[in-house]
Amino acid sequence: MSPLPPDPSQASLAVRERLSEVRYEIRGELAKRARELEASGRKLIKLNIGNPGNFGFRAPEHLQRAIADDMGRTDPYTHQQGLPEAREAIAAYYARRGAPDAVPERVFIGNGVSELIDLSLRALLNPGDEVLLPSPDYPLWSAATILNDGRPVYYSCDPENGFLPDPAQIEARVSHRTRAIVLINPNNPTGAAYPRELLERIVAIAAKHQLLLMVDEIYDQVLYDDSEFVPLAPLAGDVPCLTFSGLSKVHRACGWRVGWALLSGTWDRIGELHHAMDLLGALRLCANVPGQYAVEAAVNGPDTISALCSPGGRLYETRRAVIEACGASEHLQLVAPAGALYAFPAVVGPAAKGFDDHDFALDLMNNESVLIVPGSSFNVPYRHHFRITLLPEADAMREVFARIDRALSRRAEAATKVVPMKSKAKSAA
Q1: Which pLDDT tens digit goes with each residue over 337-384?
Q2: Are 404 and 346 in contact (CB under 8 A)?
Q3: What is the pLDDT of residues 165-191, one digit of tens each?
Q4: Across-strand partners of 223?
Q5: E strands, 210-341, where?
Q6: Which residues contact 225 (CB under 8 A, 6 or more apart)?
Q7: Superfamily for the 16-56+307-414 domain
């Protein structure tokens, strides 16, 4: 008897094919396994997401008051580009930094920077257009490029160079399909902070090839030791530049979903992009309104992040614990993060033999109850790094690295163990 044909009513719904190219392991398979372990009663130390609220941080009180005081005004939609007074405050903030043409009309407020990255790439790209992205990158940039029918083209930010890019390599990656150069400064996942001379050289490349600069500056005030942050828009001048930032990191308000973008450069170059972003913003009506009432307080209020990043501050001391733990380990190397909320250690020595970052992350979670993110999730060609967030207390981080070192020692021991050769059995007559 021939088999019955499949029942069309039971066929799985097809999904967009390009989703198969998208990776976001920060909240992916390992995070799902973590939830299963927690449901069974396991207590995990989760270092996969830079989410300050999950580690006891709170948004500053003056931001909370600003929302509470204006909650009665938050029911209606606002303008698709954002609350007028919030855009005015953002524009004035960037004007003080020297950004050209920093006016409210050029500010877009979104449901976090993530939405604005997606919206701007949707406005910019035609099928097959290319975007130059750092490797490692924050994987949302790759995903948004792919899902808007673009093609990510990576330039290397190698640990041997402090995770800074080589401008000559960036220019060598430019083709007739290239539309934009993306920078993440300070960088996620490496913590690199880009010096002025490097940024100036990248601006010159964008100017020469008529490219859009897109710079994610969400960690612009999260800096350690004598690290300096140099904003890109003032250096870009007339060159089209989209600068992204928001409330989630510096102001520890991730769940409020308030991000913004400033579009600078000469109007004849950016006018069509502005119109396209405005149209796409209108199609989603507007961003979360209550959170926008905190913007003015955030950009004009007291500095609440520098103390956390200075000696004795929580972020600084946790970073110190990571640097010391990696320095004391025979299995780890670290380029000390200059900014942002992450470290990106490398596994070295015998423990690195046959090392696979995803397998190690799974082993670490199953056997040591620590959740990390494999380095290859950040679109690098190597598999011996991992990312952790600096948000736990320093003592908790020391415990984390004791567990990591224990797991790596087991790997190193297994890799160096001498297995005696078995004598060959004699052939049967």
Answers
A1: 999 999 999 999 999 999 999 999 999 999 999 999 999 999 999 999
A2: no
A3: 999 999 999 999 999 999 999 999 999
A4: 339
A5: 212-216, 241-246, 259-264, 332-333
A6: 338
A7: Aspartate Aminotransferase, domain 1 (3.90.1150.10)
